Amino acid sequence: MTDRVNRFNDDFVDWEATSYGEAWAPYYDEIFDVIEDATIELLAGLAGNPPRALELAVGTGRVALPLARAGVAVTGVDNSPEMLAKLAAKDGASAIEAVVGDMADVPVAGEYPLIYLPFNTLFALLSQERQVELFGNVAVHLEPGGRFVLDCFVPDLKRFDQANTRMGVSSIKSATEHAYEMSIHHPVTQTITSHLVRRQSSGETLVLPVAVRYAYPSEIDLMAKLAGLELENRWGWYDRRPFNDRSGQHVSVYRKPG
Ligand SMILES: C[S@@+](CC[C@H](N)C(=O)[O-])C[C@H]1O[C@@H](n2cnc3c(N)ncnc32)[C@H](O)[C@@H]1O
Questions:
Q1: Which CATH class is domain 28-154+216-255?
Q2: What is the structure's pLDDT at 93?
C-alpha cells in the first residue's frame, strides 16, 4: 500500500490558482472519465456555423476532445501546464488549440459564437471580484448573439454541521475502493476548502485538495447582467431536464445581445 498525499493546511494559505491542476493532473482522468452525449450535443448545437468554441479551464480535454470529434473547432484555456500536458498526449489533441493562462482573463484573440465553462469551474475563482471579471471578459470575446454556457452545483449548506465542517462519504464502490470528503465552509467568503481522501482499487490512498468559492444561480445571473449578458435558458442538466427547487446543479445559457 502506498499513500500519495497532497495536503494543504486548514485555511489553504498556500493555495494558488494553479494548485488544482498540479495536484489533480496525475489522477484526473482516472477519476473523471465520463462525458455524456447530451453535453456534446447541446454544446455543438450552440457552436455556430462554421462551428467554433472556446472552453475555459479545458483541463485534460474531457469535454473538448469529444466536441472536436463532433466537428467543432475548439480552443481551450487552462492555467495548468500539468493538465494541458495530459491533454496534449491524447489522440486528437492536435485539433485543439491550447492556451496557457488564467481563465478569468480570457487570454485569447477574437470573438467566439460559444464560450463554455463546465464542471463547476467558475467556482475555482476564489473571489467574487475574479468571477465578475471573468463574465466581463467572456462578454468581450463573444460574438453578438453568442452564448456562454456553464454548469455549476447549487450550494447546499445543509451538508455542513454547526461548526461549518463536513466529514462525508462521497462513494463506496467496495471495501477496497471508496472516497471521503473533509471540508471546511467559510460562509463569509462563500468558500469551501476540502480534502478528498480516495482509496483506490490498487491499494493506493490519495489525498487531493480542492478549494471553491460558490455562488447561487441568482448571484451568477447578476454577474452576467453586469457584463451585459441575458439568461436565455437554465436546465437541471445538459439533457435539458427542468431546473427546480430540488435541482442539485444547473446548466445556464447566457446570450450576448445582438
Ligand atoms: C474540474 S477541472 C475541469 C476540466 C475540464 N473542463 C473538464 O470538464 O473535465 C478544473 C480545471 O480548471 C483549471 N483551472 C483552475 N483554475 C483556473 C484558472 N484560474 N484559470 C484557468 N484554468 C484554471 C484546472 O487546471 C483544471 O484543469
A1: alpha beta
A2: 98
Cell 447541446 sits on residue? 42
Strands (E) located in 92-237:
97-100, 112-117, 142-153, 165-174, 177-186, 191-199, 205-213, 230-235
Which atom of ligand 1 sits closest to the CA of residue 130? 19
Domain residues of the chain, as ranges?
3-15+156-213, 28-154+216-255
For residue 32, the ligand 1 atom closest to its alpha carbon is 9
Is 121 close to ligand 1, i.e. is its CB under 6 Å away?
yes
> How many Å lie between the centroid of ligand 1 and the Cα of residue 151?
13
**What is the per-residue pLDDT for 9?**
74
Residues 96, 64: contact at Cβ < 8 Å? Answer: yes
Confidence check: pLDDT of 240 > 60 = yes
What is the three-class DSSP state of 231?
strand
* pTM of the predicted protein model: 0.96
Q: Which CATH class is domain 3-15+156-213?
A: mainly beta
Amino acid, single-letter form, for residue 246: R
The predicted structure's pLDDT at residue 1: 55
> Does position 6 have pLDDT exceeding 80, yes or no?
no
Answer whether 3-15+156-213 and 28-154+216-255 agree in fold.
no
Amino acid at 218: S
Burial of residue 246 (CB within 10 Å: 0-12, 13-18, 19+) is exposed
What's the pLDDT band for 35 if we cut at 50, 70, 90?
A: very high
Q: What's the gap in Å between 164 CA and the centre of ligand 1?
A: 26
Q: Which residue's CA is minimally distant from atom 19 of ligand 1?
A: 102
**DSSP conformation letters of 208-227:** EEEEEE---HHHHHHHHHHT
